[in-house]
Amino acid sequence: MGAAGATGAPGTTGAPGTTGAPGTTGTAGATGAPATTGTSGAAGTTGAAEASGAMDAGAASAMDSGAASAMDSAASAETGTAAVAFPAPEVAKIMVVGSSNELITCWRAFLWRELEGADITNFDFVGSVSAGPNCGVPGYDMNLQAQSGIIISTLPASTYAGWFEAHPPDIILMHFGGADLLANMPIDGVINAYSLALAQARLVNPHVRLIIAQHTPENETGCTNCKVTVVELNADIVTWAAQNTTLASPVTSVDLYTGIDPATDESDGVHLNDAGSQIVADRWFAALEPLFKP
């Protein structure tokens, strides 16, 4: 181990590192035995055992914390910039999964405009449906996977599998389950549907990224419990996302509830108007931008 040479006493002749510290000469001191770890002479009064010994607790902790953020937030050693999931020219297939708020409002158009305006063009909206209002954004990609009034609690796995097999997504933007609440379906059924959908998506693409929305407000006339159940669902969504995320297939939530006023941002207590659509587009954009640009 270098410091225990035949005549070199630890920390006396070899410790200062005057002749043995560099580690490239292979000796711990003037007459020390050849060192296999190189830096034993510089270890000071404690000699080579610490220099060539096991990693200390601080280094181990640093390694653990680095591994946890290795996927998206780790800095590139070569460029010094944050890693991105879909660097250009790689094209990310984005599937919007939802219901009437995805089909008949403007947030998809506004999101497309924001992405393009930020020079993010390496994406493609995918899905078996192509519909939506123009919203003053001519030529935007209208493809998505949505159905007005869809009750997701009763959908079988084969339905989700059909969606994802037909148009394999890299990113899913999911915002549905509100119709279940309007129909007085239990929250547990909605959460179970999310799990079923995610499992089928991962069978198609083990690295799929799911960004799931905390649901927009629902204050429909005659639905006396809607506001309460949406708040409860949204709390469960945050917990569910944390429980189901993995390094290979991250799941994150985006808040589409806070700050949206049904009186000014929705047309009927459920569906977004243009003001609400812009808020929602902004929040989807904030979640997507780091995947494309550092």
Question: What features would you highlight for this structure?
Answer:
294 residues, alpha/beta, seven-stranded mixed beta sheet
Question: In summary, what is this structure?
Answer:
With 294 residues, this protein is an alpha/beta fold. It is 36% helix and 11% strand. The protein has a domain at 92-292: 3-Layer(aba) Sandwich (Rossmann fold).
The whole-angstrom Rg is 28 Å
Order of helices and strands: HHEHHEEEHEHHEHEHH
Question: What is the class of the domain at 92-292 in the CATH system?
Answer: Alpha Beta
- CATH fold type of the domain at 92-292: Rossmann fold
Label the CATH architecture of the domain at 92-292. 3-Layer(aba) Sandwich
Any overview of this molecule?
This protein is of the alpha/beta class. It has a domain at 92-292: SGNH hydrolase (Rossmann fold), CATH 3.40.50. 36% of the residues lie in helices and 11% in strands. It is built from ten helices and seven strands. Strands 1, 2, 3, 4, 5, 6 and 7 form a seven-stranded mixed β-sheet that branches. The longest helix is centred in the C-terminal third of the chain and has 19 residues, at 226-244. The protein starts with 47 loop residues before the first helix and ends with a helix. The model is unreliable at 1-81 (pLDDT under 50).
